[in-house]
Amino acid sequence: MERARGWKVGDPGELAEQVARTRSNLPPNRAHIDAREVERAAFGVVGHRDLAFQVWEDAHAAAVGAWRECRRRMRREYGGRSPHGGWTFPVLFLSLLAAGVGAALASGARTDPEATQGVLAVLVGGSTVADLVVLAVAGWRPWNRAVVRLQIGLAIALGAATAFQLSRPEMWVLPLVIAGGVIGVGGMLLVLLVRMLRPEERLEIDTVINVAVERMQPELDARVAEIRANASEELGVEDSARIVALRTAVLADLAAEGIVLEPVPEQTPAGGAMIAALTAHWHPYSRQKA
């Protein structure tokens, strides 16, 4: 790409021409225009299109890698109880679905309970066994709130299936359903009791994501600083100043037309807008706080 040679920062005529070129490289849909796109286009106009793509790719990879590493560390430390990647949540979720369907069959609202005993036995038996496995693996350690809610729902579903079966003449599946209801309710009481008796561990498992994010943030910040330093070294002082001036002018030009974007301080180095936009929400919970 042709480089913008001869343009000096502070030359209004040349700056206006570069602003027009930059704007011509922005997405045609105004909804897709943001500060990082403006900066990417400015890189291209100044002659560093490939570097812009490299900075973009590095920043994106840093954000994705940070969240991946967070999840890996949570799985390593908490195993099946990890809120991300732990197997207890999906197992209990499927158990809850099975128990819910079992309760619907036991109610006899749409099917003949006598004819669906075999299916009911499979559903209740499967969800009960899965619940027992999860309870055994967790042992005397608290679960996080999401899993506790699933256990409460499972207890309600199995309890409802038991109540429906007890309300009609005895069937061969009744003992199995009663055992499932007892285990479901007993499991609920157990997990609530453990959380009550172990408040420190309960707080730890409830805040594990926050802690993992806080521990990872300095590492991501260091990687961001490295990407910025590499970009500045590749650009040099003169081209860095050109990109910053061009970015600032284009943002002001857009604002004058009513396209107000998130402000970028002038002291933000070239590449900083792209890097900040791509790494600010590196984990899904950051957008909930924003």
Automatic annotation (TrEMBL):
Lineage, uppermost ranks: Bacteria, Bacillati, Actinomycetota, Actinomycetes, Micrococcales
Bilayer-crossing regions: 85-106, 118-140, 147-166, 172-194
Top-level taxon of the source organism: Bacteria
UniProt name for this protein: Uncharacterized protein
Record keywords: Membrane, Transmembrane, Transmembrane helix
